[in-house]
Amino acid sequence: MRDVFHEQLDAVFGDLATICGQVETAVCQATKSLLEADVEIAEQVISADVDIDRARVEVEEQCFELLSLQQPVAGDLRVVVAALRMVTELERMGDLSVHVAKIARMRVPDVAVPAEIQPTVSRMAEVARDMVARVEQIIVHRDVSAAIELGRDDEIMDQLRRASFTQVLGDDWTHGVEAAVDIALLGRYYERIADHAVSIANRVVFVVTGEDPRAAASEA
Amino acid sequence: MRDVFHEQLDAVFGDLATICGQVETAVCQATKSLLEADVEIAEQVISADVDIDRARVEVEEQCFELLSLQQPVAGDLRVVVAALRMVTELERMGDLSVHVAKIARMRVPDVAVPAEIQPTVSRMAEVARDMVARVEQIIVHRDVSAAIELGRDDEIMDQLRRASFTQVLGDDWTHGVEAAVDIALLGRYYERIADHAVSIANRVVFVVTGEDPRAAASEA
């Protein structure tokens, strides 16, 4: 039977996983609004972001209570601070989904993403959504090997982003500057969602092992 | 005479101000490399970022030591966590400066920013740099009124960003897709630097007053 500190910590990580699920929905719906030029879904993503913000505040309060009442030191202290950072990143991923939804809303009734580049953008969106879904499981199961694997998949997003630049900067790009700018910013938003997913996965590795895989990587 | 906790906290805020100075240099030099297509300065900004990363780690260690040894509660605890968040944001601002320098480097020997839009981009860069410089002073002097004023100036960056979009999307834009995409991403990077500056200023307000101006704003 676990002590009070670790029981409360489990509750915090449970809430982090729940917020991660909300973020996955946000990414998924924002992409749907983008590719279908659906203003109602875009509005839903934008208005639902306050729920993620509220959930973040609640997790922060739990963490402050843990720090104040349980006075953890050493590894336990760093785990609570890691949780505080994870919830900040999850909120940021929600904000980035809102940015995607706002580009969708701005171009309605047109679809912001021209048909010929939709496969690339859809793939970026799917990679981002899949990473968020996997992070949720990584948090639930404290799955270190899945977390390390997620870090490797970051390269796929980089490749897709380069592919999108090649397309919009190519001679056969006929959709003008506005669509190209939208694609560049959308790519940036999905890339940042993926970056945060990797960062959260790395924090889970740290929480479980006490080792930061980024530190190990930078030493390599 | 201050107690050990507040003396160590002063040291942390001194280091935060120093890092803020390094970030101001990064923003300033990245912009210089961008507008002068100077690859050497761009390389300097990119390689100097490790110093900001190292300084961040040192501040984090100081904060963990403060939390472990001094076991602060209530307001003092939140101040240390605020410092941890401030240093994370400062590191991020350094990363964003590196992104600016990399766009500069990618276009050398050309200047990434066409002459006709340089006034707008220079202004964005100057607003960002000025906000970083002011944040340094806000940290040093715990200047709440200057911090609240900084929050208001965020709107200037939004206006400049809209102006840059109007230019690149206008019929008389003759510089093609690549330059437009660069401008859109550069605008995003400078905007994010400004966002982080405002966020850090808000954290200083919280550190001094115990009130988060964003919370107050969202209630209004």
From TrEMBL, chains A, B:
The UniProt entry's GO biological process terms, in alphabetical order, are: intracellular phosphate ion homeostasis; negative regulation of phosphate metabolic process; phosphate ion transport
- Tell me which InterPro entries the record gives: PhoU (IPR028366), PhoU-like_sf (IPR038078), PhoU_dom (IPR026022)
Q: Where in the cell is it found?
A: Cytoplasm
* Entry's Gene Ontology cellular component terms: cytoplasm
Q: Which residues form the PhoU domain?
A: 20-103, 121-204
Q: Does the keyword Cytoplasm apply?
A: yes
Q: Which domain of life is it from?
A: Bacteria
- Function, in words: Plays a role in the regulation of phosphate uptake.
The family annotation for this protein states: Belongs to the PhoU family.
Tell me the subunit arrangement. Answer: Homodimer.
Protein's name in the database? Phosphate-specific transport system accessory protein PhoU
Species name:
Nocardioides marinus
